[in-house]
Amino acid sequence: MAKKVILDCDPGIDDAMALCLALLDPRLDVLAVTAVGGNVAPAQATRNVQAIIEQIDPPRWPRLGAASAPDNGLPVDGRNLHGNDGLGGADFNVAELHHLHPSEKVICDQVRAAPPGSVSVVALGPLTNIARAFQRDPELPGLIGDLTIMGGTVTSPGNITPAAEFNIYCDPAAAKAVFRSPSTKTLIPLDVTNRIILTFDLLNHLPDRSTKVGNILHRILPPAFRGYRQQFGLEGIHVHDTVSLMAVLYPELFTIEEMAGDVETMGELTMGMTVFDRRRVPAWRRNLGVAKYLREREVIDAIRRGIREAAERAG
Ligand code: RIB
Ligand code: CA
Q1: What pTM was computed for the model?
Q2: Is 15 in the pocket of ligand 1 (CB under 6 A)?
Q3: Whose atoms come closest to the Cα of 80: which ligand?
Q4: Ligand 1 centroid distance, CA of 115 (Å)
Q5: Can you give the chain as a three-state secondary structure string?
Q6: b/e string for 276-288 if b means 16 or more Cβ within 10 A?
Q7: 14-33, pLDDT tens digit by residue?
Q8: May I ask the CATH architecture of the domain 3-314?
């Protein structure tokens, strides 16, 4: 029985790669893909979600959700790494968007339409939509299966400030609300996603451009490699969201530890920081599982196998 999932994402090159793999994996039944602003503005994120789905044209199209800005607007974006359009300048054609429901409504409707606990959510961008869905339907945290979140850090430095990871930093209030919600949460932080670097060698082993997946990846990945080399001197790229999807597909490759975590929403220097009670005798209540280790070689192999098999399936 395929796992019912909702993907919430801010494409973003690593979001787009994760989306390609998820939409074509028979182990997943992607009920909806809901856009959230983050790497790019909300309207562009919505457009990018539709673009990837149109390019992949999966056997069963998921419902689409439209992104809207966080209450306090987006403090930052990811265009320096993801390109002005968020997809490395691929400039995919997109059919005109018909009236799309807001992402938070789509999340609530899809969860309510399925048996309790049967729909899992994978959050690959800021947590704006998740928090809004929980506000819209206060019973939702108890009705979703598990919530996997790409975001935060435990002991690693941040990637958008010294203290904060991008997804949390974009909407700290939303992240705090989600961390404090009674949902079953697993956090995939930079501490583990930074351990995966896809090297230039990947570009020589992508599916042929004539395939749907190959066409997408050949257009969005080279700019990412250039960006990581220019900005970080890195001979490869991180794919935080794709790694997080591997945690859903291959949980056995990750070591999860129950921790007590919260989000800073006031600090001048620490805004968006994820804080964990790691004292010998923690006083905070444990509220989420956190990925502490992963099996790097196997995760990289799973990503490369996923790309190959997705291309074979989509043609
Ligand atoms: O910090 C990494 C996260 O920020 C990823 O989800 C990436 O797509 C960006 O949204
Ligand atoms: Ca993302």
Answers
A1: 0.97
A2: yes
A3: 1
A4: 31
A5: CCEEEEEEECCCHHHHHHHHHHHCCCCEEEEEEEECCCCCCHHHHHHHHHHHHHHHCCCCCCEEEECCCCCCCCCCCCHHHHCCCCCCCCCCCCCCCCCCCEHHHHHHHHHHCCCCCCEEEEECCCCHHHHHHHHHCCCHHHHCCEEEEECCCCCCCCCCCCCCCHHHHHCHHHHHHHHCCCCEEEEECHHHHCCCCEEHHHHHHCCCCCCHHHHHHHHHHHHHHHHHHHHHCCCEECCHHHHHHHHHHCHHHEEEEEECEEECCCCCCCCCCEEECCCCCCCCCCCEEEEEEECHHHHHHHHHHHHHHHHHHHC
A6: beeeeeeeeeebb
A7: 999 999 999 999 999 999 99
A8: Alpha-Beta Complex (3.90)
Q: Which atom in ligand 1 lies closest to the alpha carbon of residue 167?
A: 4
- Ligand 1 center–CA 283 separation, angstroms: 30
Ligand 2 centroid to 263 CA: how many Å? 18
Does the CB atom of residue 125 touch ligand 1 within 6 A? yes
Closest CA to 44 of 90, 5, 6, 75: 90
The CA distance from 22 to 16, in Å, is: 10
- pLDDT, one tens digit per residue, over 203-235 is 999 999 999 999 999 999 999 999 999 999 999
Nearest ligand 1 atom to the CA of 14 is 8
How far is the C-alpha of 57 from the C-alpha of 204, rounded, in Å?
25
Catalytic residues: 240
Cβ of 86 closer than 6 Å to ligand 1, yes or no, is: no
Say how many Å lie between the CA of residue 39 and the centre of ligand 2. 7
